[in-house]
Amino acid sequence: MSDPEQLLRDALQDRAERTSYDATPLADVESGAYRLRRRRRTVGAALTAAAAVVVVVVPLAVVAAQDPETVPAPAPTTTPSVPTPTTTPTTPAPSGGPPQIAYAEGDRIHEPGGRVFQLPRDLGVSGFVAYRGGYLVADARYFEGSVGLTRYDAGGRAVASWTSAGRPVSSADGLVTTWTSFAPPESGTTAPTLVHVASSTGDGPEVTQELDLIQPSVVGMVGVDVVIEGGFGAGGVWATDLVSAPRRIEVLDRATDVSDAQGLIAGSVDQDAIGRVVDAATGEVLWERQGVTVSAFSPDGRYAVATASQGGRREIVEARTGEVLAEVKASGEEHFPTLLELTWEDDGHLLGDLAFNCCAHLGRVDLDGNITPARPRGEIGGTGFVFAATS
């Protein structure tokens, strides 16, 4: 019988050999997106093949995330449906309808079909993705760059936990999920710093790679590469396929989002003074602008959100050129005066987390920058809304 570790190495090597990092010219964007989708299927195939021969042992809770056995999750308020991979729909959303993507408010995840997935109370949510019938949730227990990360099964029970930074992120098609784990220095424990990649829907192994970074966080996935932002120390932006050594994206100090569809990374340099959009394959700076942060690529990668460092002005821009399409008309509006966050609901609409009279509201933003109310409204003193993170 073949050595299981060798079989896993062969599967990962095969995945690496199928990956190309050649530049994608502007005229070939459509065919480039098709190649990236083919690469995603290659990742899924490699994970499935690896599942047949090896189980990769992954460290569970390290200090910041409590032991699931001592802190059981309460029973869901409704019987949770088995969530589908958290992908962003491309069909237009009705102006006044409920959100078409999952969102969290307090200790509840609201699914597009109307069901509510109950999480443990008082932990909060800073990020989440649908994962293997349940959810992978980053809580709000933030301490010096770290958060608790817990996997909940379909019944709302905590089955695994880690210490992490940032939030878990799924691939654009929802089939693969990635996150980081580490032992925080103040814990007094020892564990490797890892980046994890695993099938979102199956029971295959978690493929990991050890990182020489301090408290890194995942930004997203472009093709088979996981884009990572370093934490303390060396910092920087890195990309890895978990086979070769991580390579640094030299033209970025920080990263805010990625577009798998277009092969783009948004980020900044000079202590966030200059926002940039970079070609992930070549490292070429496609455009930059002083005094803005670029984030939130649309699902098709055509658009992004640019936020002014001073005053918080939000603009919808062309992702590859930076051309301004519209200003988001939020600040100063009677009903939605303060815009906290924007997340794409589909290729033509964003959902805005807006604050008014101590309440959190959801507003829907079109490509002209106009806001119409979406139905959910948070309670007084609520924590606002958090949306699932996809590449």
Describe this structure in words.
By secondary structure, the chain is mainly beta. Among the domains are: 86-111 and 328-391, no CATH class; 249-325, Beta Barrel (Thrombin, subunit H). It contains two helices and 28 strands. The protein has helices spanning 4-17, 29-51; strands at residues 103-105, 108-110, 116-118, 127-131, 134-138, 147-152, 158-164, 169-170, 176-181, 194-199, 207-210, 217-222, 225-229, 237-240, 247-248, 254-259, 264-269, 274-279, 285-290, 292-295, 303-308, 314-318, 324-327, 338-346, 349-356, 359-366, 371-377, 385-387. The strands form seven sheets. The protein has a four-stranded antiparallel beta sheet with strand order 3-2-1-28, with no helix packed on it. Helix 1 (4-17) packs antiparallel against helix 2. The two termini are 39 Å apart.
